[in-house]
Specification:
- The chain is 66% helix and 3% strand.
- The protein contains 13 helices and three strands; from the N terminus they run ααααβββααααααααα.
- It has helices at 3-8, 34-63, 68-90, 99-116, 136-154, 162-181, 185-202, 207-226, 228-238, 246-258, 283-316, 320-344, 362-379, and strands at residues 118-120, 123-129, 132-134.
- It has a three-stranded antiparallel β-sheet, with helices on one face.
- Strand 1 and strand 2 (123-129) form a beta hairpin.
- The relative contact order is 0.17.
């Protein structure tokens, strides 16, 4: 299959030039995709349960309140649900009007946090406004998705030129990647990959991505080695037992001790001070310990269904802007799931990547739910469940 044809299969019907058997687009009186909504609701409920299970011990020791992290996560969940309702009411096309302003706000906040952000664990990634903390890099992800969807939908033919493709990448992905990478390389890599996937799908050219990918890998490795703690993480990944990779080793112990069906919900031993901040990036290890391999497979299966549902919405979106919005959202979620599971299982070096909808993290959860709101708005009036022979 030619590269052009593979690209066109992922674009809305209005952009396709070939005929093929496809799922039928059916007007559904403005209803959202309730299947996607149910999947997300189930994952949110499961995430809240796991945040409580993984954090209750540490929360009791630190604050005297076993519900401390659960309460904060529930507040972020509530804000995200409000965002879903508002976005579905306003409509995804509203984001065309604010694509550039939102991107510049994300850039400004990413620059601000470098100099004036709150430093935790040797990294300045958070802005505190009273008791509320905010991570600008999370806003940067959705801002980039919206901007690229807007640029691609305005003139898709422009990206047929390798020169224009590179210029678009440098103007949109470049500045945000550099600013975020200074303090948060893992998030910067996710931003780079989200943008790369969206441009790859939009462009019939392949070789520029191969060249940029090779240069990017070289640059990321060089950048990682410039900071002592990043170099130490690579050593710990290669030989965790002899390089003080305490968190990684404890996470692996948790995974190994879970067996096929786990020790039972709430029965984890590793969360009792062995896995540091177990409710954050390492929550998947607690899932494996408490629910076993079976539970881990079920969680991954939920994400597969979620991403597949997003892909269907992207394929059947009513316009190219909506299609690429959902493509970017699907890329964001799938990348974070892959990287988080890879970190927990020590497949890649330890990085601070959350498990979507499940890990503790207010900014990440609220932004992800806002993205789901965008996807639900795109899904209005589109039925992806009926097939046309």
């Amino acid at each position: 299959m030619k590269r052009e044809e593979s690209v066109l299969r992922l674009m809305p019907e209005t952009t396709r030039t070939h005929r093929t058997t496809r799922k039928r687009i059916k007007k559904n009186k403005g209803q959202i995709d309730y299947t996607l909504l149910v999947i997300v609701a189930f994952m949110l409920a499961f995430g809240l349960i796991m945040v409580y299970s993984a954090s209750s011990y540490n929360a009791t020791l630190k604050t005297g309140d076993s519900l401390y992290y659960l309460k904060k996560q529930a507040i972020s969940c509530g804000l995200g649900i409000v965002a879903i309702v508002v976005i579905c009411k306003v409509g995804y096309k509203f984001f065309k009007k604010i694509a550039w302003p939102l991107y510049f706000i994300a850039l400004a906040l990413s620059a601000y946090v470098i100099f004036f952000g709150t430093t935790l664990n040797n990294s300045s990634r958070w802005i505190y406004i009273g008791p509320i903390s905010f991570q600008p890099s999370e806003l940067g992800k959705v801002a980039l998705i919206i901007l690229l969807a807007y640029i691609i939908s305005r003139n898709p033919g422009r990206l047929r030129s390798a020169k224009n493709l590179v210029i678009t990448a440098l103007i949109t992905i470049g500045p945000l990647f550099v600013l975020v990478a200074i303090n948060n390389l893992s998030t910067a890599i996710i931003i780079l990959l989200i943008g790369g996937i969206m441009l790859f799908i939009a462009s019939p050219k392949t070789w520029p991505f191969i060249g940029v990918g090779i240069l990017g890998i070289i640059g990321i490795v060089a950048f990682a080695l410039t900071a002592g703690y990043r170099a130490q993480r690579i050593k710990a990944w290669l030989d965790p037992e002899n390089n003080d990779a305490y968190q990684t080793m404890q996470a692996l112990y948790a995974i190994g001790s879970g067996g096929l069906f786990g020790k039972g919900l709430g029965e984890s031993v590793q969360k009792q001070g062995f896995v540091p901040e177990a409710q954050n990036d390492m929550v998947f290890s607690i899932i494996c310990e408490e629910l076993g391999l079976f539970g881990a497979i079920c969680v991954i299966a939920m994400f597969v269904v979620l991403v597949w549902r997003l892909v269907l919405i992207a394929i059947h979106a009513k316009d190219m802007f909506g299609s690429f919005l959902v493509i970017g959202i699907a890329a964001h979620i799938s990348l974070q799931v892959i990287l988080n599971v890879a970190v927990v299982t020590n497949t890649i070096p330890n990085t601070g990547v959350t498990l979507p909808f499940i890990s503790y993290g207010g900014t990440s959860l609220a932004i992800l739910l806002a993205e789901i709101g965008i996807a639900l708005s795109v899904s209005k009036g589109v039925d992806v469940d009926e097939e046309d022979e």
